[in-house]
């Protein structure tokens, strides 16, 4: 894990931040957060802290707006038939909805349509012709698409259909020969080019009907968040104004109320949109029914609204299940076909559907810590979605392979690709050669971005001022900080809960789904907690809480961890397997591919000076880069091979190749153990007397109840007796079950140690 902090400030920068804080009436640390986000003047800070419609830019600064308004006015005056043509994702559906309502307010009842994902992105001539045959179309207004459809627009014009393009995607070198409204077109004086498709549609709507268009800012804010637009500048103002409509019971639409369910009664934030609403809207398009979301947004009958919202919720559940299915299949393919050897992973299956591959690609990037392209079958060829890691521009790599492709597009971190099946192997080779030939070094280590390190209690004022920086999202991430701790006792919020809490000198922490952090937090060594600061409210009382986002442990000194390693090693004997290792030589240290080096006695690390610069972790590997893992609990996926640096007490399952470099012993601590029955009896009798005692964890229990000379023996006896079920842990207590009679030789743990001792 690599923690990246905000820049170290110069004297002049500190003075500027102090001035911003004073003029804006905020804490220095809050002004510092703004400075890190590029808010480096008093004027910018005041605008950022007071987002509103005042920050909206005039739509008439967008090129093409005046001509579009005139063209639409002519259509109204001449009773021409207008079609709003959108896209199948949340932005496209919202953009279609916004322009439909604004045109209706203007006096035009337009038809509207969004293509299905399988019909492809952009204008679909066959779909338009079918609609034109039903009822003649005079004018098409595109939303969230069209800027790259030069030839299709020429075809439509030749059929007597006029076209107005509103879009926000990167414009091509040659624009369509028609009215085009796009903030990214060079040479205009708009001043902000990060609007989403619905944002551009809103601007056209505002040019038509003025402030009445503001009634649809909830759709625009939804689209802005769903399309991962940066929440800065005008997008921040739009999102704030849209969230006001979401959070006002009088303006919260029934469609959103039913999509949100119980969440409709809580504060609706950008995160609510991102995690609760947007996935449901996008699920329609992913399941081949984008029209359901569009119909939901324009429906007026409440019963029908409820039915459509329920349908989208069901689609989202099915989408999650299908994504999980494809993810498991793709992961199996990657591992079974040894694709983890590649710098860039390409995986394909004709049966997969295009609506799910982008989500799957993103999950696989997290799993394997390298760029991934996932391909589905489409019209006899492959259509893929690419996702990348920090610091690697996947779009540049794809552009370099353009001669092999049918189509492509995207940006540095995500892209779409179409390739023939015949060219698929060549594409994989070309992309991986691109990494090698250009000297690209992929950063596979997990990165966490934190503002700064905190060592003093956090004030409620600072927590409230952080909340004032909402909405958080792309371009304005919620601030994270770090603090240092040593041994921490993390407890479940209640019996059986997956959520944990603990107190520190800086802040009280909540760790949601935090079971994975309980052990590393309890270790008696220094560690950093990465956390967010939040204001929590319970029964009208506010308190400041930290939300744990990661734990970074410093494994520089293992001397305090010998008992923990011993406990882990003897516990694994129960499910250990016999292992035959491949003999390794010095080439296993060359690190051509990510390699996991396993070490069972940390004292043996001194034998391997060539590994001194590699990350070291305990029990669980962090990331997919080459590293040393001491006393693994399991072997993670995503590695080409694993190398045992010393001989283990028990081997673990691994599908790849296992090598052993050295025959040095990795379990010398068993020399401390006795297999004599008298020693077992002495420890056992004391455990009987301790029956019913609290046992937070075994090491703490042993340290609290035994002399230091007996620590290892006591852990050994407890492990054997719990395996035999003579001792059981129930509701945090160690219980002796006197009804159970079992021979020591029936214990795998005892038998293994016995075989090594005799």
Offer a concise description of the structure:
The protein has 758 residues and is of the alpha/beta class. Helices cover 38% and strands 17% of the residues. The chain folds into five domains: 7-49; 59-311, inorganic pyrophosphatase (n-terminal core), CATH 3.90.1640.30; 337-437, Roll (Diaminopimelate Epimerase, Chain A, domain 1); 559-669, no CATH class; 673-757, no CATH class.
Describe this structure in words.
With 758 residues, the chain is of the alpha/beta class. The protein has 5 domains: 7-49; 59-311, inorganic pyrophosphatase (n-terminal core) (Alpha-Beta Complex); 337-437, Diaminopimelate Epimerase, Chain A, domain 1; 559-669, no CATH class; 673-757, no CATH class. The protein is 38% helix and 17% strand. The chain has 24 helices and 27 strands. The strands form 6 sheets. A 6-stranded mixed beta sheet has the order 13-17-18-16-15-14. A 6-stranded parallel beta sheet has the order 19-24-23-20-22-21, with no helix packed on it. Strand 2, helix 5 and strand 3 (111-113) form a beta-alpha-beta unit. Helix 4 (65-77) crosses helix 8, helix 5 runs antiparallel to helix 9 (217-226) and helix 5 packs parallel to helix 13 (290-298). The radius of gyration is 31 Å and the shape is globular. The two termini are 43 Å apart. The mean pLDDT is 91.
């Amino acid at each position: 894990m690599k923690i990246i902090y905000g820049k170290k400030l110069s004297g002049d920068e500190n003075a500027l931040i102090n001035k911003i804080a004073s003029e804006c009436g905020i804490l220095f640390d809050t002004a510092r957060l703004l400075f890190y986000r590029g808010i480096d003047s008093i004027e910018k800070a005041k605008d950022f802290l007071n987002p509103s419609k005042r920050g909206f830019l005039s739509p008439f600064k967008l090129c093409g707006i005046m001509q579009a308004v005139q063209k639409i006015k002519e259509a109204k005056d001449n009773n021409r038939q207008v079609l709003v043509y959108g896209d199948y994702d949340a932005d496209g559906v919202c953009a279609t909805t916004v322009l439909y309502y604004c045109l209706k307010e203007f006096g035009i009842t337009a038809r509207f349509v969004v293509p299905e994902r399988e019909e492809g992105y952009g204008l679909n001539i066959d779909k338009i012709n079918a609609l034109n045959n039903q009822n003649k179309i005079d004018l098409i207004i595109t939303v969230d698409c069209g800027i790259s459809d030069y030839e299709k627009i020429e075809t439509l014009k030749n059929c007597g259909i006029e076209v107005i393009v509103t879009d926000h995607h990167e414009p091509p070198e040659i624009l369509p020969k028609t009215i085009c409204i796009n903030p990214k077109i060079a040479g205009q004086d708009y001043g902000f080019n990060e609007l989403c498709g619905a944002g551009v549609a809103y601007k056209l709507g505002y040019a038509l009907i003025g402030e009445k268009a503001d009634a649809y800012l909830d759709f625009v804010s939804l689209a802005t968040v769903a399309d991962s637009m940066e929440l800065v500048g005008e997008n921040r103002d739009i999102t704030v104004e849209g969230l006001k409509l979401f959070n006002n019971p009088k303006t919260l639409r029934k469609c959103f109320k039913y999509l949100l369910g119980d969440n409709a009664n809580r504060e609706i934030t950008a995160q609510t949109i991102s995690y609760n609403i947007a996935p449901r809207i996008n699920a329609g398009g992913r399941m081949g029914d984008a029209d359901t979301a569009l119909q939901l947004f324009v429906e007026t009958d409440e019963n029908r609204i409820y039915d459509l919202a329920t349908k989208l919720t069901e689609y989202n559940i099915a989408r999650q299940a299908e994504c999980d299915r494809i993810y498991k299949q793709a992961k199996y393919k990657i591992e079974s076909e040894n694709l983890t050897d590649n710098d860039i992973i390409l995986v394909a299956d004709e049966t997969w559907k295009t609506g799910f591959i982008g989500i799957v690609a993103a999950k696989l990037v997290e799993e394997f810590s390298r760029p991934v392209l996932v391909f589905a079958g489409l019209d006899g060829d492959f259509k893929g979605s690419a996702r990348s890691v920090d610091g690697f521009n996947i779009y540049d790599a794809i552009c370099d392979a353009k001669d092999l492709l049918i189509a492509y597009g995207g940006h540095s971190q995500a892209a779409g690709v179409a390739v023939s099946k015949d060219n698929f192997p060549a594409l994989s080779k070309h992309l991986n050669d691109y990494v090698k030939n250009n000297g690209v070094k992929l950063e596979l280590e997990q990165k966490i971005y934190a503002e700064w390190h905190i060592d003093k209690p956090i004030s409620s004022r600072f927590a409230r001022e952080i909340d004032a920086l909402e909405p958080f999202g792309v371009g304005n991430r919620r601030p994270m900080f770090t603090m240092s701790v040593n041994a921490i006792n993390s407890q479940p919020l209640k019996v059986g809960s997956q959520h944990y809490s603990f107190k520190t000198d800086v802040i009280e922490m909540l760790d949601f789904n935090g079971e994975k952090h309980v052990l590393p937090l309890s270790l008696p060594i220094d560690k950093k907690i990465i956390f967010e600061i939040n204001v929590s409210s319970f029964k009208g009382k506010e308190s400041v809480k930290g939300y744990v986002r990661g734990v970074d442990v410093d494994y520089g000194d293992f001397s305090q961890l010998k008992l923990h390693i011993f406990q882990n090693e003897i516990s694994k004997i129960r499910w250990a397997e016999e292992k035959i290792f491949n003999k390794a030589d010095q080439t296993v240290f060359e690190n051509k591919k990510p390699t996991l080096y396993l070490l069972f006695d940390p004292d043996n690390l001194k034998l391997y000076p060539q590994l001194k610069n590699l990350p070291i972790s305990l029990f669980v590997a962090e990331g997919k880069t080459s590293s040393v893992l001491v006393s693994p609990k399991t072997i993670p996926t995503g590695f080409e091979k694993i190398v045992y640096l010393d001989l283990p007490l028990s081997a673990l399952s691994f599908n790849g190749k296992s090598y052993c470099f050295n025959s040095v012993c990795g379990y010398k601590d068993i020399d401390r153990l006795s297999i004599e029955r008298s020693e077992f009896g002495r420890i056992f009798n004391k455990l009987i007397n301790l029956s019913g005692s609290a046992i937070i964890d075994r090491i703490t229990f042993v340290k609290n109840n035994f002399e230091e000379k007996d620590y290892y023996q006591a852990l050994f006896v407890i492990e054997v007796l719990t395996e035999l079920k003579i001792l059981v842990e129930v509701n945090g207590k160690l219980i002796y079950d006197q009804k159970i009679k079992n021979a020591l030789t029936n214990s795998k743990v005892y038998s293994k140690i016995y075989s090594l001792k005799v």
